[in-house]
């Protein structure tokens, strides 16, 4: 049974741009300043997770503020990070299959978007 797997790697600068645009486009409560830094939090690396609980990645965007010791922080869920990266791919004309399984995982200081298509997914994509 054939399986098609692709992995798109996003570095920290690309994440900064994608997440800042997403926050602005979706009217999240963000300041007009730029994102100074991004931290990707992987809960599964910090604590023991049992097989029944689903831990997900989160991102913390740190915006510049008038008080350099107290930056403004905005949190993004894994779902929001997916939306931001898919929007970035659309903007860059990177094709993403609708019928696929997509996963995010931390990769160095960035993120990897893994896209997998089973034979059934491939057939469903051809039918549409």
Characterise the protein shown here.
This protein is α+β, with helices and mostly antiparallel strands and about 130 residues long. It has one domain (about 5-125). About 30% of the residues lie in helices and about 30% in strands. The chain contains four helices and six strands. The longest helix has 14 residues, at about 10-25. The two termini are about 20 Å apart.
Short description:
By secondary structure, the chain is an alpha+beta fold. It is built from four helices and six strands; from the N terminus they run βαβαββαββα.
**Helix proportion of residues, in percent?**
25-40%
Number-wise, the strands total: 6
Structural class: alpha+beta
Order of helices and strands: EHEHEEHEEH
Query: How many discrete structural domains?
Result: 1
Radius of gyration: 17 Å
Low-pLDDT parts are 46-53
Strand order, main sheet: write it out.
1-6-5
Specify the overall morphology.
elongated
Distance between the termini: 21 Å
- β-strand percent reads 25-35%
DSSP helix count? 4
Which keywords apply here?
single chain, 128 residues, three-stranded antiparallel β-sheet, elongated
